[in-house]
Structures are given as C-alpha cells and as structure tokens.
Amino acid sequence: MVGVLYQQLGSKGKLEAQRWLQELVRQRSTEEGDPGDLGLTLALKSLTEIPEEGESEKFSIGQL
User: DSSP assignment of 39-62, as one string?
Assistant: First the structure.
C-alpha cells in the first residue's frame, strides 16, 4: 500500500503514505495501545516499499 501511494500518486501520495505510517506508529500511545506491536511491525515492513531516491524511475508497480 505504501509503495503504491508513494510511487503512483506523486506528492499527494507521499504525504498520505507518511500520514498512514505515522498513524500506525501512533497507535502505541493510545489507550488501546498496539497489541503485539502489530501496527509498529506493519509500519516497519511498509517502509521497505518506499524506493530510494531515483529508484522509482527504474521500475513501476506494473512491472513487478
């Protein structure tokens, strides 16, 4: 999800991906918490979907 937002929707997608990741991490500070650190784990795994600078031109999601 983060990779698609980041690569396909330009700066708006990047901002939305950042917001989504921040919300996953922020769950830890809520009253309900983040049982089993599932939100944190998803956020960390999602970070690997973000290409390094200049790498997004090498391939697109459709090529995967």
Answer: HHHHHHHHHTTSPPTTGGGT--GG
